[in-house]
Design brief:
The chain contains 13 helices and no strands. The protein is an all-alpha fold and about 240 residues long. Helix 4 runs parallel beside helix 8 (about 130-155), helix 8 (about 130-155) packs parallel to helix 13 (about 215-240) and helix 12 (about 205-210) crosses helix 13.
């Protein structure tokens, strides 16, 4: 645990050693504000809730989380510091988890900085804050799932642009898996079980369930399992690199 904490602290501090952290936070908060207040017409809806705000999260994360994850391992490969990192006297899982948790904590910080929107809706009306809290929790878990995918893909290449593009494509597939257009494309020839299985991987479907105020254990397990799966893939990829495979 100490090794993982050391990696976490090193990685988290590195975000603020350059303007990257501040640029990301500004872009994140600006995009959230634009999508909520202008595109989503927050003030014209006449409803004291944050459904408009949370409705755009999956689409913003689709690009912002891969952008955050693309440098985690690709930069280590490009600069040649991966070999040095892997020779340090610490277990591989501690390095992988430490780097990932630092990125997730940074994403959580960005999400937490949207609290003025929560304050605004409470000032304007009487929203169900339990539902809003559940939505924030679901959004944080969904961001973690996007990040885990991006982190695993970043570990397989030294090119950040390639890592970003592939991550966006994979994340997009998980995002739209439950869309009507996707399920309709399979219903004509695929078994119902396969269509249901594909639909069950939709990030939007699981997040919408949580943002409706229903904290279902199955939705929590889905995101956490997906995070665990891609972190395991991350470890396998790095292990192959370490062993010269």
């Amino acid at each position: 645990m100490n090794a993982m904490l050391s990696v976490f602290q090193r990685e988290f501090k590195s975000y603020f050693a350059t303007p990257i952290a501040f640029v990301f936070l500004i872009i994140f908060l600006f995009a959230m504000g634009v999508f909520t207040f202008y595109i989503g017409n927050f003030y014209n809806n006449g409803v004291a809730d944050l459904q408009t705000f949370f409705g755009f999260h999956s689409w913003l994360y689709l690009f912002l989380m891969p952008a955050l994850a693309m440098r985690l391992w690709a930069e280590e490969r490009r600069s040649g510091t991966m070999e040095l990192l892997l020779t340090l006297p610490m277990p591989l899982w501690a390095t992988v988890f430490g780097k990932y948790l630092a990125a997730w904590a940074f994403a959580g910080l960005a999400l937490a900085l949207t609290f003025p929107i929560w304050i605004t809706v409470n000032y304007l009306g009487n929203p169900d804050n339990g539902v809003i809290f559940a939505s924030y929790l679901g959004s944080f878990l969904m961001a973690g799932a996007y990040l885990a995918i991006g982190t695993a893909i970043s570990s397989a290449t030294s090119n950040q642009v390639i890592a970003f593009v592939i991550s966006v494509v994979v994340c997009f597939l998980f995002t739209v898996a439950g869309a009507t257009a996707v399920t309709d494309a399979f219903q004509g020839w695929a078994p119902v079980q396969l269509v249901d299985a594909i639909s069950s991987f939709s990030f939007i479907s699981h997040f919408n369930a949580v943002s409706a105020g229903v904290i279902d254990l199955r939705d929590m397990v889905f995101f956490l399992s997906l995070i665990g799966l891609f972190l395991y893939a991350n470890i396998l990829i790095i292990d192959l690199t370490k062993s010269g495979g």
